[in-house]
């Protein structure tokens, strides 16, 4: 068996805690969002998909500012002295975040202006400035403004009789300067109504409708339409100038759960108060004069370090409106998710199919409809006695929740844990919690101090040989919409030991429990951290005893210092480590004597790589877990998470050979993390065809091969016969 190129190092424990061995979490996130922007720049994506990625970039950035930057500002205000693992104080992190974000935000606007706008125009989609409109178009917009926008607007003056108004979170506004004949210069604020479309369609001249088979469309930004008609809001007043500005506030909800008499009401109150959080960012255009900037900074009680000057549109998350255009030629081609062939054998009888063998689905390539059918079948099957399920992010008009409501109507005992603290989904989850309670579902909100992030459903069914538990375990949410765009795995099984574990888990969620171990599941915060660390340590031991060790982890984020420390130890021992980390990675690979046996890739691509996979070579007795947990302190310490084993050798082999090996061979979507914290695109070797892992998964089922199925590449780190 081939030996790894480096022998174990003798570095001390203190060496592995050196700050220079850790990448800053916030700066790593910025690099992740940079990769999202690079997807917008990638010409292999259809044009409206590139626009979508630009929207995602800005939406991601909003959340980062409202949560992470707000947290850093809180630490600075509290004079916190504990540095991050990479040795930076909160003040240093905040300064470096601002320094790196400023040019990136400008680069995004420049790319929009210089690249995407002209390409949209080539496809007869015109995003115009108001100054570009002719008289006929302006007349049409004047009528639209009068009947569709004007009635919704509320001008707010600022003077001794009118205090500076509250500027709500994520709001787009116009700072208006007027000249009053009596009082001279005055300031007013006009909020752009958030429920109106950001892009207002304008008529095109008849001669523009010449594209064969394509209906040209033109839009103008709503804030420009409002700015052009401010005289309607201030009749008899000379409006001198107006400037757009946008405010972001601290949106992190802090709950004193042990003092809350009713968690639902407490979360609901906190959501309402979110719009009053302290300001973390004021975005303006360069045209805004210093005196207006100072007025806003003073009244928002922030300083110039919280000011972002953006040469381009503010709040570009609204670009997602353009993705809704009926232009399938400019979007990813649709596909039909697969349904396991085993279900046709049993004429759709899911319970019979699961009794024969575990079902493993790889979404979105496999249909989420199978999961919905599982809950619906349980809801109507007269032999089903009870259904228990966790709900984290289910979306609106959820077919899963409707199935649970139907189950109550059929007399089933239904219990759900609705996680009210799912960030930015709180209001939606509050509505579902109340609807479920009204229907007679036993609804609980989780454990004090913990978010329940695990995705688990349990169905108890009476069968001729007694009660049997059917279990659904997933890496992703019960959300029918995101299931078509997020990559995830789920397992349907009636393994009695896993069923017993899931029963214990639900009992701990709905009742009281001091359970500190599970039979097969790894559950946070009880046993998951310990289970991962012990298995890494086992890989180190087996490497030393038998000369080979291999770990492959696929996850969204790797932040936890203790896990990173143990991975460094494994690398020093000669264990080969392959990491596929979509987002934040604080581990620094490729450092001689420390992490030269670790390679880190990131894949974004068309589908959000959301699944978590943990593979341990284990001396050839491979062990593989899937689950909901990333390697972050919050997941391991402050959430209820589950990792579940894939014990069927056929399924385990399929994940290794037809998922992990494909991901590790990708030369289209993949980028490699370099020791300095930057990423480099991976390219095919000369003469080697490019491999797009997501396109490969679309063509090839996880389990059922067909006559045209080509063999996938192999992981070079795996020994022959593994």
UniProtKB/TrEMBL annotation:
Domain Polyphosphate kinase N-terminal: 22-127
Domain Polyphosphate kinase C-terminal: 350-513, 521-689
Domain Polyphosphate kinase middle: 136-322
Keyword Secreted found: no
Processing and modification events after translation: An intermediate of this reaction is the autophosphorylated ppk in which a phosphate is covalently linked to a histidine residue through a N-P bond.
This protein's GO CC annotations: polyphosphate kinase complex
Record key words, sorted: ATP-binding, Kinase, Magnesium, Metal-binding, Nucleotide-binding, Phosphoprotein, Transferase
InterPro entries in the record: PP_kinase, PP_kinase_C_1, PP_kinase_middle, PP_kinase_middle_dom_sf, PPK_C_dom2, PPK_N_dom, PPK_N_dom_sf
A GO BP entry: polyphosphate biosynthetic process
Residue sites binding Mg(2+) per the record: 393, 423
Keyword Ubl conjugation belongs to the record: no
Chain residues that bind ATP: 60, 486, 582, 610
A GO MF term: ATP binding
Family membership: Belongs to the polyphosphate kinase 1 (PPK1) family.
Alphabetical list of NCBIfam families matching this protein: poly_P_kin (TIGR03705), PRK05443.1-1 (NF003917), PRK05443.1-2 (NF003918), PRK05443.2-2 (NF003921)
Function (record text): Catalyzes the reversible transfer of the terminal phosphate of ATP to form a long-chain polyphosphate (polyP).
Protein name: Polyphosphate kinase
Organism ancestry: Bacteria, Bacillati, Chloroflexota, Ktedonobacteria, Thermogemmatisporales
């Amino acid at each position: 068996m081939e030996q790894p190129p480096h022998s174990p190092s003798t570095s001390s424990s203190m060496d592995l805690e050196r700050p220079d061995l850790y990448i800053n979490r916030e700066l790593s996130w910025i690099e992740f969002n940079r990769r999202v922007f690079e997807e917008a720049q990638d010409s292999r994506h259809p044009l409206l998909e590139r626009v979508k990625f630009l929207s995602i970039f800005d939406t991601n950035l909003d959340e980062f500012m409202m949560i992470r930057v707000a947290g850093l500002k809180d630490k600075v205000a509290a004079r916190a002295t504990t540095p991050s693992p990479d040795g930076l104080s909160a003040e240093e992190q905040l300064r470096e975040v601002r320094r790196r974000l400023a040019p990136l935000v400008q680069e995004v606007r420049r790319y929009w202006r210089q690249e995407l706008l002209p390409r949209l125009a080539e496809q007869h989609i015109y995003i115009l400035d108001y100054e570009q409109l002719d008289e006929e178009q302006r007349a049409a917009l004047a009528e639209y403004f009068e009947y569709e926008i004007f009635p919704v607007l509320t001008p707010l003056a600022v003077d001794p009789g009118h205090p500076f108004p509250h500027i709500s979170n994520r709001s787009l506004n116009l700072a208006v300067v007027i000249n009053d004949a009596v009082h001279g210069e005055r300031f007013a604020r006009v909020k752009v109504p958030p429920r109106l479309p950001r892009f207002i369609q304008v008529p095109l001249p008849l001669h523009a409708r010449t594209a064969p088979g394509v209906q040209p469309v033109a839009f103008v930004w709503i804030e420009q339409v409002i700015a052009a008609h401010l005289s309607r809001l201030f009749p008899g007043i000379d409006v001198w100038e107006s400037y757009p500005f946008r405010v972001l506030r601290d949106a992190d909800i802090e709950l004193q759960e042990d003092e809350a008499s009713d968690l639902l009401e407490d979360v609901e109150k906190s959501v309402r108060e979110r719009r009053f959080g302290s300001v973390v960012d004021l975005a303006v255009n360069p045209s805004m004069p210093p005196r207006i900037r100072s007025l806003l900074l003073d009244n928002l009680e922030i300083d110039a370090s919280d000011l972002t000057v953006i040469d381009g549109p503010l709040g570009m998350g609204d670009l997602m409106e353009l993705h809704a255009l009926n232009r399938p030629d400019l979007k990813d081609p649709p596909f039909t998710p697969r349904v396991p062939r085993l279900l046709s054998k049993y004429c759709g009888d899911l319970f019979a199919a699961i009794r024969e063998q575990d079902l493993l689905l790889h979404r979105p390539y496999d249909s989420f409809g199978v999961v919905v059918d599982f809950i619906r079948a349980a809801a109507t099957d007269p032999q089903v006695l009870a259904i228990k399920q966790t709900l984290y992010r289910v979306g609106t008009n959820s077919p899963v929740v409707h199935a649970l409501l139907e189950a109550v109507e059929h007399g089933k005992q239904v219990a759900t844990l609705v996680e009210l603290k799912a960030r930015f989904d709180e209001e939606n989850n509050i509505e579902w919690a109340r609807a479920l309670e009204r229907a007679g579902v036993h609804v609980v909100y989780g454990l004090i101090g913990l978010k329940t992030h695990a995705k688990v459903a349990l169905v108890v069914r009476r069968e001729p040989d007694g009660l049997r538990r059917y279990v659904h375990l997933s890496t992703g949410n019960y959300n029918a919409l995101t299931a078509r765009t997020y990559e995830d795995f789920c397992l349907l099984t009636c393994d009695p030991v896993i069923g017993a574990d899931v029963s214990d888990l639900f009992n701990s969620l709905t009742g009281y429990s001091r359970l500190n171990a599970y039979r097969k599941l790894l559950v946070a915060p009880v046993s998951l951290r310990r289970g991962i660390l012990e298995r890494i340590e086992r890989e180190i031991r087996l490497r030393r005893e038998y000369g080979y060790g291999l770990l492959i982890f696929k996850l969204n984020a790797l932040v936890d210092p203790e896990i990173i420390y143990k991975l460094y130890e494994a690398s020093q021992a000669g264990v080969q480590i392959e990491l596929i980390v979509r987002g934040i990675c604080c581990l620094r690979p490729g450092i001689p004597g420390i992490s030269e046996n670790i390679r880190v890739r990131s894949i974004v691509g068309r589908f959000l790589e959301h699944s978590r996979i943990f593979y341990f070579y284990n001396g050839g007795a491979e062990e593989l877990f899937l689950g909901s947990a990333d390697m972050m302190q919050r997941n391991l310490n402050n959430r209820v998470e589950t990792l579940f084993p894939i014990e069927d050798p056929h399924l385990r082999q399929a994940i290794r050979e037809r998922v992990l090996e494909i991901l590790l061979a990708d030369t289209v979507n993949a980028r490699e993390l370099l020791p300095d914290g930057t990423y480099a695109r991976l390219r095919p070797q000369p003469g080697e065809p490019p491999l797009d892992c997501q396109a490969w998964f679309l063509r090839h089922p996880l389990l059922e091969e067909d006559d045209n199925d080509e063999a996938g590449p192999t992981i070079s780190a795996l020994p022959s016969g593994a």
